[in-house]
């Protein structure tokens, strides 16, 4: 829906999937990777729901689905876009929902030009920076800027519209400028979002799905009928995804396309609808809520940029004072966070210690940090539950980067490959690195497991659950809380007497957590700090019960506004454990879901514009006419006293400006976004581009790959040619990576356990019988897989689960690779790592790496040993004539001049935080999610 909670969690609860009439699982092998949550899919199926699995492989999820649709990895936008076209062309969209609750009727700037006009690009593209100026994507507004004050405000709003996109580094509620957006509820005006949407997706047809995805017209028709027949007033369809969608250069747009479809069908905010973001292990959702990301502060507040010199500058970059919705209160959220961190030292006079927060000047994610390591610009590195030597893209580059460090701290349960690469890694075997020449000092700190510590974890469905310590950690193993509390104490002691202003933020931190009987910091005290409390007045020191109680005058403090209420009345609500059989279907007393223990976001949309449920069967929240309040089964996601037909003055801003038919309360206009005027760096509408490495040309546009993708052209990060380019036949096959139930991510929790290692003892590949015959591969024999980056050896599993696809007149063979193995001597089992094959190319919105598509060759036999492996890789590179610039072109239309006027910005505002031609982008996310 745009940028409602940045990269916040699923709109629904897992349990709510049981209420779906159709479930499409795409980009996930849910039955194997999320087996506990899959119980709700099984229950929905038992109630009569259709379950459809779209995936390159036939998996255990496929086995229990009604239908499996094999798809070419990376082509999902074409399939989803064709569903959108099917819905629009056959008049199957939910008319009243769409007109009232989305921006379908909103008029877009006359300056906007679509990918249909510019053959794969949108207006405002700047080839020099590889990024978009966003001004031409703006809404038309009733304020035409006449008069001196109006013109000044209009210009200011225009500048904000031009800059407030992904370059605000991940915040939600992107401002849409001043003035009331113009709307045509007849949807006939050619500049309405609706008409732009129809034209944009008109070329996404069943025939295009066959040619691009490898899915037949008959299978597409089955999917289209299943989704549309199970959507509407009385029925809802749910989409579920995991990293099979996110880990692409177009990952954010995959999800956007599904969001558009769900809005058109009226499935957002309703029981059994929405989009389920399946999170893997604890606490993947929590790591973006209270973030481990360079670009975010807790609660999806953006990290300040170097251009935001004051707190007011910072807040004004997040919201405008007259925008609708709860993001207009961003100042309160920011001030409460600052008060939580710096307490009495944060005052109105010093901007609540805003200057204590570091500023960013661009993307500083995992892979940018890696590139800085290779330039000797990073001295030290902490690895906490991460194993980049195995689990990150281009494993060789990861290990080489660590060899440039002065020190490396690894906190883990076992001696993982990222702790031992300096003595037994592949580069030691090849002679590229010699242990005696490596200056990196490695510190291994034993970590406590999840059963050896107390605390919360947040994953699928935004559900914050409390775990209680079961056993004491062995030896010197520590929880993260104890480790960082002790580290903070020691650092603060070192700077206690310092007069250096740089040390003031450390000296002034509130670092006074009570200890348990065992001498560890009390995890519940941290939860209470995150929840927030009153600092002054009659309720001083009492916990806050809602984020609406937060003030921007320093009288309240809270560490993460979306978690406010989790410790209301001094009760740890994450620890609620009321059994489901004694609750209603919402199960609101099992743990706590942010925000406000709300299980279905935007649930105002579950009622019609008059406040009545769309149907009795899908009843969730409704307007109680007698008591003049919103009520229902779930916690209403709407101002409780806002009558359905009310139309407040939008200029008053914030929640008070929300009309009775503005259910999307985190959006600046209160509507679900079919078109994103802000918030997406690679286009206001999803557009199909081929992956960085592809065996076929883009059949929709001459623009081959995303022109805004983040690239790192290097000799040790070469890309294969794509489409009809010379050398594509050297790497003729596609590979995609995935995870197994028996192993956990990079193997740190499973390859050291004999029982799990026995279940899956060796690295292998899955290939079709046709590919095995083509390449002379024997079942259970050895094979070598070669990419432009590396060569690995695998055992061969020949299986009908891998289906050759016909795409663009070619037979496309896809190879499935689990990614759990790594080369080392400490684990029970080891093997070559699949991620060594991957290059590093990123989604520009969130900086997530592309794990799901790559080009390769496969040949019988084991790979060469030592330096001979590198010689094999080089021989392939030479045959394909690879250079640093292979596949690195931004503009791939041979007839287009880079300086053509239509590609240039139509406004004079510069792109905020403009990056270099190859690294334009923002944030890193989902780095540790299960594949």
Automatic annotation (TrEMBL):
Residues 141-185, 631-660, 891-931 are annotated as: Disordered. GO terms for biological process: anaerobic respiration. One of its GO terms (cellular component) is cell envelope. Residues 11-413, 445-490 form the Molybdopterin oxidoreductase domain. Residues 916-931 have a biased composition (Polar residues). Residues 733-853 form the Molybdopterin dinucleotide-binding domain. Its main location: other. Coiled coil: none annotated. Residues 145-162, 634-646, 891-909 have a biased composition (Basic and acidic residues). Its cofactor is [4Fe-4S] cluster. Keywords: 4Fe-4S, Iron, Iron-sulfur, Metal-binding, Oxidoreductase. It is found in: Cell envelope. GO terms for molecular function: 4 iron, 4 sulfur cluster binding; electron transfer activity; molybdenum ion binding; molybdopterin cofactor binding; oxidoreductase activity. Residues 167-176 have a biased composition (Gly residues). Belongs to the prokaryotic molybdopterin-containing oxidoreductase family. PANTHER family: FORMATE DEHYDROGENASE-O MAJOR SUBUNIT, TUNGSTEN-CONTAINING FORMYLMETHANOFURAN DEHYDROGENASE 2 SUBUNIT B. This is Formate dehydrogenase. It comes from Kocuria tytonis.
């Amino acid at each position: 829906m745009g940028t409602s909670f940045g990269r916040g969690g699923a709109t629904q609860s897992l349990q709510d999937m049981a209420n779906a009439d159709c479930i499409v699982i795409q980009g996930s092998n849910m039955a194997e990777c999320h087996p506990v949550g899959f119980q709700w899919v099984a229950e929905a199926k038992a109630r009569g729901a259709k379950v459809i699995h779209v995936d390159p492989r036939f998996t255990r999820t496929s086995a229990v689905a009604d239908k499996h649709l094999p798809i070419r990895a990376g082509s999902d936008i074409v399939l989803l876009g064709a569903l959108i076209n099917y819905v629009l062309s056959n008049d199957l969209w939910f008319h009243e929902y769409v007109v009232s609750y989305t921006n379908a009727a909103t008029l877009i700037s006359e300056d906007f030009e679509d990918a249909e006009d510019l053959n794969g690009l949108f207006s405002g593209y700047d080839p020099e920076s590889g990024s978009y100026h966003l001004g031409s994507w703006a809404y038309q507004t009733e304020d035409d800027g006449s008069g001196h004050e109006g013109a000044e405000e209009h210009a200011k709003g225009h500048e904000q519209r031009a800059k407030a996109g992904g370059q605000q580094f991940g915040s939600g509620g992107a401002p849409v400028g001043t003035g009331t957006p113009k709307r045509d509820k007849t949807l006939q005006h050619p500049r309405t979002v609706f008409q732009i949407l129809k034209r944009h997706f008109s070329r996404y047809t069943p025939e295009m799905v066959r040619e691009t995805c490898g899915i037949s017209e008959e299978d597409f028709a089955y999917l289209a009928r299943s989704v549309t027949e199970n959507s509407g007033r009385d029925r809802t369809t749910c989409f579920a995804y995991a990293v099979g969608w996110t880990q692409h250069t177009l990952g954010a747009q995959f999800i956007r396309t599904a969001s558009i479809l769900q809005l058109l069908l009226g499935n957002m905010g309703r029981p059994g609808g929405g989009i389920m973001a399946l999170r893997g292990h604890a606490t993947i959702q929590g790591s973006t809520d209270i973030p481990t990301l360079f670009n975010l502060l807790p609660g999806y507040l953006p990290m300040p940029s170097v251009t935001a010199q004051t707190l007011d500058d910072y807040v004004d970059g997040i919201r405008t004072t007259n925008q609708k919705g709860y993001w207009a209160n961003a100042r309160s959220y920011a001030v409460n966070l600052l008060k939580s961190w710096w307490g009495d030292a944060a005052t109105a006079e010093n901007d609540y210690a805003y200057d204590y927060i570091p500023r960013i000047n661009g993307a500083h994610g995992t892979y940018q940090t890696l590139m800085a390591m290779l330039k000797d610009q990073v001295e030290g590195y902490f690895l906490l539950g991460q194993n980049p030597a195995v689990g990150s893209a281009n494993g060789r580059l990861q290990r080489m980067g660590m060899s440039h460090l002065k020190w490396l701290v690894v906190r883990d349960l076992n001696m993982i490959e990222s702790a031992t690469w300096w003595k037994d890694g592949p580069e030691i075997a090849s002679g590229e690195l010699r242990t005696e020449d490596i200056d990196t000092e490695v510190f291994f700190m034993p970590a406590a497991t999840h059963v050896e510590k107390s605390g919360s974890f947040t994953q699928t469905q935004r559900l914050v659950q409390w775990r209680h310590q079961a056993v004491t950690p062995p030896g010197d193993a520590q929880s993260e809380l104890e480790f960082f509390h002790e580290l903070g104490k020691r650092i603060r002691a070192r700077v206690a007497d310092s007069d250096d202003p740089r040390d003031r933020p450390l000296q002034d931190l509130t670092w006074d957590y009570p200890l348990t009987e065992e001498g560890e910091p009390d995890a519940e005290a941290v939860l209470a700090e995150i929840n927030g409390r009153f600092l002054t007045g009659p309720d001083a020191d009492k916990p806050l019960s809602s984020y609406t109680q937060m003030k921007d005058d320093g009288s309240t403090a809270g560490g993460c506004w979306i978690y406010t209420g989790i410790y209301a009345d001094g009760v740890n609500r994450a620890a609620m454990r009321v059994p489901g059989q004694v609750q209603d279907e919402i199960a609101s007393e099992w743990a706590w879901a942010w925000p406000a223990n709300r299980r279905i976001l935007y649930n105002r949309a579950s009622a019609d514009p008059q406040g009545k449920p769309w149907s009795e069967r899908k009843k969730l929240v409704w307007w109680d006419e007698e008591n003049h309040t919103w009520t229902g089964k779930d916690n209403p996601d709407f101002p409780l006293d806002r009558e359905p037909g009310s139309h407040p003055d939008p200029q008053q801003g914030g929640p008070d400006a929300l009309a009775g038919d503005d259910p999307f309360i985190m959006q600046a206009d209160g509507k679900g976004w079919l078109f994103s005027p802000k918030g997406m760096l690679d286009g206001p509408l999803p557009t199909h581009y081929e992956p960085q490495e592809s065996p076929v040309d883009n059949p929709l546009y001459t623009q081959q790959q995303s022109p805004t993708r983040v690239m790192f052209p290097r000799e040790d990060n070469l890309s294969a040619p794509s489409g009809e380019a010379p050398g594509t036949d050297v790497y003729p096959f596609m590979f995609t990576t995935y995870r197994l139930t028996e192993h956990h991510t990079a193997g740190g929790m499973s390859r050291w356990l004999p029982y799990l290692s026995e279940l899956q003892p060796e690295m292998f590949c899955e290939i079709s019988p046709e590919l095995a015959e083509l390449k002379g591969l024997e079942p259970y024999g050895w094979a070598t897989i070669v990419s432009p980056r590396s060569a690995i050896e695998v055992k061969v599993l020949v299986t009908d689960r891998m289906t050759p696809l016909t795409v663009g007149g070619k037979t496309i063979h896809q190879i499935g690779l689990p990614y759990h193995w790594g080369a080392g001597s400490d684990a029970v089992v080891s093997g070559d790592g699949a991620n060594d094959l991957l290059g590093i190319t990123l989604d520009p919105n969130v900086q997530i790496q592309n794990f799901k598509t790559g080009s390769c060759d496969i040949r019988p036999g084991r790979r060469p040993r030592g330096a001979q492996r590198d010689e094999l890789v080089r021989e392939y590179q030479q045959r394909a004539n690879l250079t640093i610039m292979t596949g690195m072109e931004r503009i791939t239309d041979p007839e287009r001049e880079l300086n053509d006027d239509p590609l240039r910005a139509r406004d004079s505002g510069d792109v905020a935080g403009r990056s270099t031609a190859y690294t334009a982008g923002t944030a890193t996310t989902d780095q540790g999610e299960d594949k």
